Each structure stands twice: as structure tokens, then as C-alpha cells.
Amino acid sequence: MGMSLASLLYPVIKPLLFRLDAEAAHELTTRMMRVTHSLGLLGREAIADGPPVSVMGLNFPNRLGLAAGMDKSAAAVDAWSKLGFGMVEVGTLTPRPQTGNPKPRLFRLPEHRALINRMGFNNPGIHSAVERLRHRQAKAVVGVNIGKNFDTPNETAVEDYLICLRATYDVADYVAVNISSPNTKGLRDLQSENAIRSLLIAVRAEQETLKGKTGRTVPVVVKIAPDLTGEGISDLVRVFNEVGVDGVIATNTTIDHNSVRPHKFADEIGGLSGEPVRKRSDEVLTAFRAGLRPEIPLIGVGGIVTGADAAEKRRLGADLVQIYSGLVFRGPILIKEATQMLVDRHGK
Ligand SMILES: Cc1cc2nc3c(=O)[nH]c(=O)nc-3n(C[C@H](O)[C@H](O)[C@H](O)COP(=O)(O)O)c2cc1C
């Protein structure tokens, strides 16, 4: 298969985008995606690259996904699917809309193929995103990533997740419980053993109730941070194995910026993503694969900038992988590269 129009154009568009402020470039890209898609100009359907794979009882057109945060409001799901993604994770969405942190809050570090962001869950609220998702035509599996509002105290955070789970249950293919973004105060504390146990028990019970009501089984996965200690990892592994989760996404962005010092943006507060997070993400992925019950699938994300990086995640135990920063620096060519490298030798 030849290069898609989007892949051919990206090298031309990229220098123009990179002259814009990072968030303005992001908004413009989303708009271009919607327009080119509505004109029928976006590439092949995801299905083109490799045979479908079954994970968590869902059929994925391929093993590559768009990571959460690129399409927080579910604005361009059909377009992302057309670009070749087998999975699109929208969000993070919270019960009520919120504007996020003051700008600037997104920084490029091109020398490192990295980004630092402190967006803070800017999003239109779960209900608005859900209405958009009802009308989707995408072949890609659509995950809905959920979180808590910034002003919800951790003591009542469980309720925010349950509100989002209920709101999205009839439209989501899977739901991702985000307890690992560094930009919502206290969110990562939900990764502590007791907090995650009560959260998961409540989420599991609600999932059962909703299953009974709707007749649908919607898998619930948990997204974790790369900054966990060895002890933090074994605590989570134990709780996940005990309470049960349908999958684990490893990992979110890192708060450790040492790898990009002395870059002028190294001391910007926020989560670091892209190439510098790959090694730690791979380590955490490996640790979870070693500890988790083998039937619990893993979604590997963090620092994939080449097809080989994607294949390495697969080798370390990821059933599916996701990308964000790599797409910013490489463009749609990475989608093709990664999906091809993710097809197993026996064609799965
Ligand atoms: C600007 C930006 C916003 C993000 N927003 C979210 C988010 O809302 N929820 C979430 O779970 N992860 C979010 N992420 C994290 C990504 O989904 C991904 O886990 C992380 O960037 C590592 O992958 P990468 O190295 O391929 O970018 C965001 C990342 C970036 C760069």
C-alpha cells in the first residue's frame, strides 16, 4: 500500500505547525482532520493493516491506538479511525466541563522528541462527549478515559468515576479509569493500595449493575503512572489480581524531568512524554506483565516514536499499544510503520 495523502503532506505542514504555539497547532490539526475527513480525503480504514485481533472480548482492526489526551472531547473519532488507528481513546472526561490550567500549558522539546504538558483535564464534560460518540461511524474501537473534576476532593472521587461510568456505559467500547495524570492535584494518590482497592471495588460493582441493565459487557481498564516505585507496582498488581480489572494501560506521562535537563522547558511543571519516558514505561510494562494474572491484557504506551518501539512493547507483553507524542514529531507515517510492525509473524 502506498503512502496516504496525510503522510505525504505532514512533512510540509509540520514546520508551519511547529511555528505556532503548541496548543494552537493542536487545535488547528484537529480542525484540519475534521475538514479533510468530511471531504473524504483521509486515508484508508484501519482495517487495511493486518488482520483484526480480539482483546478483552473486543475486535480491534489492528493493535495500534491513539492515546488519551489527543482527542479529549471526542471531536474527530471517525477521522482518527480513517487515519489508520485500530483504537481511539477519547478523554480524559470528567463529570462536569472544566477549562483546565492557565495557558501556556503545553511545551515542545523537539531535541528530545518530547512534550511537557499540564493541561489539567480541559474537557467539555462526559455528557457532551457521549452525545458525540453516539453518532460515530468509526471502525476503530473507542475507549472513554474518565477522571475526576479538579475540585472534587479525593474522599468523594469514587462518585466522579461512577458518574462517568454510568454516563458512558452504553456508548463506550471500553472505559479507562485514569488515576495517573500528574496535573490534577491528588489524583495519583488514588494509586495507593487502599484508595485503588475501594475505587475498583465500587467500579466493578457498578459495572455489574450496568451489565444487568444494558445486557452489554464493557471492559474497564486502569491507566497507571510510570513514576511508581517497586513497592507501588507490587501493591497495584496485588489489588488488580484480587479485585480484577479487564486490562491495564502502562503508562501515563512522567514527572521526572531529569532526562531533558538542561532544556529551557525542563523545569516547566507537568508530565513529560515522548522518547524520554520510553525506558521507564517499558520497565513498568515488564513488571506488570510479570506480576499480573496472564489473562489480564496490557496496553503499552509511552515513548513510541518508531515502529520498532511499538514492536518492543509487544515483545515485552503488550497486547495493544498507543501513541501520542510520536505522532506529533513523526506524523501519520508512524501509524503505518507501527501497525505493520505490530502484525505478528503468524499474521495476528
Ligand atoms: C498534551 C497531552 C495531553 C494528555 N492528556 C491525557 C489525558 O487527558 N488523559 C490521559 O490518560 N493521558 C493523557 N496524556 C498521556 C498520554 O495518553 C500518554 O499516556 C503519554 O503521553 C505517553 O505516551 P507518548 O510518549 O506516546 O506521548 C496526555 C499526553 C499529552 C502529551
What does this 3D model show about the protein?
By secondary structure, the protein is an alpha/beta fold. The chain has one domain: Aldolase class I (TIM Barrel). 39% of the residues lie in helices and 16% in strands. The chain is built from 11 helices and 13 strands. Strands 3-4-7-8-9-10-12-13 form an 8-stranded parallel barrel, surrounded by 6 helices. Helix 2 packs across helix 3, helix 7 crosses helix 8 and helix 9 runs parallel beside helix 11. It is globular. 51% of the residues are buried. The mean pLDDT is 94.
Short description:
By secondary structure, this protein is an alpha/beta fold. The chain is built from 11 helices and 13 strands. It is globular, with a radius of gyration of 19 Å.
What structural category characterises the helix and strand content? alpha/beta
Radius of gyration: 19 Å
Query: Helix content range of the residues, please?
Result: 25-40%
CATH architecture: Alpha-Beta Barrel
List keywords for this structure.
TIM Barrel; binds flavin mononucleotide; alpha/beta
